[in-house]
């Protein structure tokens, strides 16, 4: 979502005369868009900021801003810790950046971490364009009301909020007109989407996907991240029937232990997750399942961890993201008995080894199959292009006739460490 937000900021600032540069020493303003989900991500902000000190010495007029969830969570504490920062802008105030920057003169610090009444998306300037090639993100929903005991999202991104259908369709059309072929719908809890529809009713994510499917020139639709409890029957059915909806689903479970799931306030158990995955696979048998796991959540015993390993074996993941539990100030789990760091590290390695095996075995099974690849960029070698299959596997093909942005049928010839290689099908 931060990638998407950064694009929106850059497009909006473009309307105010700013131009983007990738070279910090050329910049009049540097914005550090930050993540607060785990401690490591938040701490990285301060080491990054330190690197800008010399630039500001050379060019005192340089403005340095911190945006994103660290800005939201820490506010002007950031300026106390790193006085070279001029502006702090929370995720709901990005439409104000140009004004805040204009006021950030003569050492006047600007802080905007409000949750305003107005929807920033309806006032953010700028036209959407294919900034990063033929695959683009589009935020449809922000915030979360679920309050999992480990998570900062409800505090940093605020309450769950869905954008109106019309705005999303309009933005998708702008992206497609500029060359985008694949759109990934984003939300911290995207399948809880319930935006105002043009018919005056609230639309579900599935209904929104069916509407997006009608856009000519848009070939692929994906969405992330979902909560198991919001996987409604119409969304499961869409996975079976909607041609443009790709056979890939990121559905985090976090743990396989019912005791831990309860302590996490996840409001689902391991059995309901397993049966949900089986329903989804009934609708779309070849779907690739991806997940998120937290190891070493407070009070997690060896038995609880083994329950997570068993669940992983039962599901067979094609992809997964796993993390050691990180204490986040202000969340309920931060106050509980913590699992020792070395235990967390050992469990994480064990879990990641298992996931890697599953991932590789699913990837290896693609050899000999024909997949459809959207080519996103040039590769390291002459005439090599890199793209993504329907299942989100990276696929490289060496062929001078292909261009970035094209969708082609590819026969997979080889499974590498983290990618597949193939050649165009005849
Ligand atoms: N809405 C999604 C997750 C969004 S946060 C869901 O409900 O699953 C992305 C991932 O970060 C989470 O799935 C979780 O695995 C991880 N995460 C969040 N808070 C964390 C914490 N305090 N420590 C470790 N991992 C965390
Ligand atoms: Fe965080 Fe996801 Fe739980 Fe919401 S549902 S609190 S975003 S982990």
Would you give an account of this structure?
There is one protein chain. By secondary structure, the chain is of the alpha/beta class. Among the domains are: 2-112, Rossmann fold (3-Layer(aba) Sandwich), CATH 3.40.50; 127-246, Transcription Regulator spoIIAA; 370-424, Beta Barrel (OB fold (Dihydrolipoamide Acetyltransferase, E2P)). The chain is built from 15 helices and 19 strands. Helix 10 (205-213) runs parallel beside helix 11 (233-241), helix 11 runs parallel beside helix 13 (270-283) and helix 14 (302-315) runs parallel beside helix 15. The longest helix is centred in the last third of the chain and has 24 residues, at 341-364. The protein starts with a helix and ends with a strand. 40% of the residues are buried. The structure holds S-adenosyl-L-homocysteine and iron/sulfur cluster (SF4).
Helix and strand layout, with pairings?
Elements: H1 2-15, E1 29-34, H2 39-50, H3 53-58, E2 63-68, H4 69-74, H5 77-81, E3 87-89, H6 97-103, E4 110-112, H7 120-123, E5 135-139, E6 141-142, H8 153-156, E7 161-162, H9 165-177, E8 182-186, E9 194-196, E10 202-204, H10 205-213, E11 220-224, H11 233-241, E12 248-250, H12 258-263, H13 270-283, E13 288-295, H14 302-315, E14 319-324, H15 341-364, E15 370-378, E16 384-388, E17 394-398, E18 407-415, E19 420-424
Parallel strand pairs: 1-2, 2-3, 3-4, 5-8, 8-11, 12-13, 13-14, 17-19
Antiparallel strand pairs: 6-7, 9-10, 15-16, 15-18, 16-17, 18-19
This protein binds S-adenosyl-L-homocysteine and iron/sulfur cluster.
């Amino acid at each position: 979502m931060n990638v998407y937000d950064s694009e929106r900021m850059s497009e909006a600032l473009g309307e105010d005369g700013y131009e983007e540069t990738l070279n910090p020493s050329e910049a009049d303003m540097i914005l550090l868009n930050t993540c607060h989900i785990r401690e490591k991500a938040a701490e990285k902000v301060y080491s990054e900021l330190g690197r800008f000190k010399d630039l500001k010495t050379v060019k005192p007029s340089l403005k340095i801003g911190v945006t994103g969830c660290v800005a939201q969570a820490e506010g002007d504490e950031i300026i106390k810790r790193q006085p070279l920062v001029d502006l702090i802008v929370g995720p709901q105030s990005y439409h104000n950046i140009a004004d805040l920057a204009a006021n950030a003169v003569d050492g006047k610090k600007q802080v905007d971490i409000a949750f305003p009444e107005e929807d920033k998306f309806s006032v953010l300037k700028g036209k959407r364009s294919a900034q990063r090639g033929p695959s683009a993100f589009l935020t449809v929903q922000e915030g979360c009301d679920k309050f999992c005991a480990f998570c900062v999202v409800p505090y940093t991104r605020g309450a769950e909020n869905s954008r109106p259908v019309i705005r999303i369709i309009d933005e998708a059309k702008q992206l497609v007109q500029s060359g985008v072929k694949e759109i990934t719908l984003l939300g911290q809890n995207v399948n809880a989407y319930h935006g105002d529809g043009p018919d005056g009713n609230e639309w579900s994510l599935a209904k929104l996907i069916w509407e997006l499917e009608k856009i000519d020139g848009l070939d692929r639709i994906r969405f992330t991240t979902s909560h198991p409890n919001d996987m409604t029957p119409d969304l499961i059915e869409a996975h079976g029937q909607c041609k443009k909806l790709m056979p890939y689903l990121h559905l985090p479970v976090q743990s396989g232990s019912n005791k831990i799931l309860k302590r996490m306030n996840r409001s689902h158990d391991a059995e309901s997750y397993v049966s949900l995955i089986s329903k989804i696979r009934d609708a779309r048998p070849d779907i690739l399942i991806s997940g998120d796991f937290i190891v070493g959540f407070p009070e997690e015993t060896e038995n609880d961890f083994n329950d997570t390993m068993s669940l992983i074996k039962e599901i067979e993941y094609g992809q997964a993201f796993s993390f050691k539990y990180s204490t986040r100030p202000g969340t309920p789990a931060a106050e509980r008995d913590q699992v020792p760091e070395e235990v967390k590290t050992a469990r994480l390695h064990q879990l990641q080894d298992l996931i890697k095996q599953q991932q590789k075995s699913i990837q290896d099974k693609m050899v000999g199959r024909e997949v459809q690849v959207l080519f996103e960029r040039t590769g390291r070698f002459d005439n090599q292009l890199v793209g993504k299959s329907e299942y989100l596997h990276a696929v490289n093909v060496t062929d001078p006739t292909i261009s970035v942005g094209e969708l082609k049928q590819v026969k997979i010839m080889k499974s590498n460490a983290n990618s597949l290689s193939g050649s165009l099908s005849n």
